[in-house]
Amino acid sequence: MDVLVIGVGGHGQVVADILLAMRAAGDADVNPVGFLDGNPNLQGRVFLGLPVLGQDQDLNAVPHDAVIVAIGDNARRRRLYEHLLRAGEVFANAVHPSAVLAPGVILEPGCMVCARAVVNTGAVILADTILNTGCVVEHHNRVGPHAHVAPGAVLGGECVVGEDALVGIGATILPRVRLGDGCVVGAGAVAVRDVAPGITVVGVPARPR
């Protein structure tokens, strides 16, 4: 399956690296062919051995079987994902070989699971969600769609992370806490109770900013 990576920024290169690692580990279904990016100054450049093949509007001119939207910002990633979904695109998942996913974990299309992430039994990861480096998603969580669990964050058992939510670097979410759509849990914060939609919380324990 030839996969185009949409976005060649820092996160896009991480996702490309994951796809290359999957191929190197023997996943014959994954073949990253290059990037598309809206920045015209990047056209023709090569990152991680993969070329920038065009801008977003060049998608139909580049042969591919699937895409993955590799943009860290939730809102931008969601808009592009939904546009491509309406256009009939197929979405690949990028799951690093060092990530640990329990049997039966549900991973919807377009998700990115980075190196050393752990996803335990009963978890459901909805479309276009990022589980970043070294995060822990405990048992029976429901995460996303279009959410981002940042590096080193830990979600206790039976948590719910809403659409477009961001769990910051090193944050901790206690078991059964619900994070509303579009909320932000700041880096290093500890959420001990539910967080309302659209609210940013910081500190230990986490409180609205």
In short:
By secondary structure, the protein is α/β, with parallel strands linked by helices. The chain has helices at 10-24, 74-86, and strands at 2-6, 31-36, 46-47, 50-54, 66-69, 94-95, 100-101, 106-107, 112-113, 118-119, 124-125, 130-131, 136-137, 142-143, 148-149, 154-155, 160-161, 166-167, 172-173, 178-179, 184-185, 190-191, 200-202, 207-208.
Q: List low-confidence stretches.
A: none
Q: Roughly what is the average pLDDT, rounded to an integer?
A: 97
C-alpha termini separation = 45 Å
| Overall 3D form | globular
Number of helices: 2
Structural class: alpha/beta
SSE order: EHEEEEHEEEEEEEEEEEEEEEEEEE
Tally the structural domains.
2
CATH class of the largest domain: Mainly Beta
Can you list the strand order of the major beta sheet? 6-9-12-15-18-21-23-24
Q: Which radius of gyration do the C-alpha atoms yield?
A: 17 Å
Helix percent band: 10-25%
Quickly give the CATH architecture of the largest domain.
3 Solenoid
The H-level CATH homologous superfamily of the largest domain, spelled out, is Hexapeptide repeat proteins
Query: What fold name goes in the CATH topology slot of the largest domain?
Result: UDP N-Acetylglucosamine Acyltransferase, domain 1
The biggest beta sheet is recorded as:
8 strands, mixed
User: How many β-strand stretches?
Assistant: 24
Relative strand content: 25-35%
Written description of the protein model:
The protein is of the alpha/beta class and 209 residues long. The chain folds into two domains: 2-92, Rossmann fold (3-Layer(aba) Sandwich); 93-198, Hexapeptide repeat proteins (UDP N-Acetylglucosamine Acyltransferase, domain 1, 3 Solenoid). The chain is 13% helix and 29% strand. An eight-stranded mixed β-sheet has the order 6-9-12-15-18-21-23-24, with helices on one face. A six-stranded parallel β-sheet has the order 7-10-13-16-19-22, with no helix packed on it. The chain has a five-stranded mixed β-sheet with strand order 3-4-2-1-5. It is globular, with a radius of gyration of 17 Å.
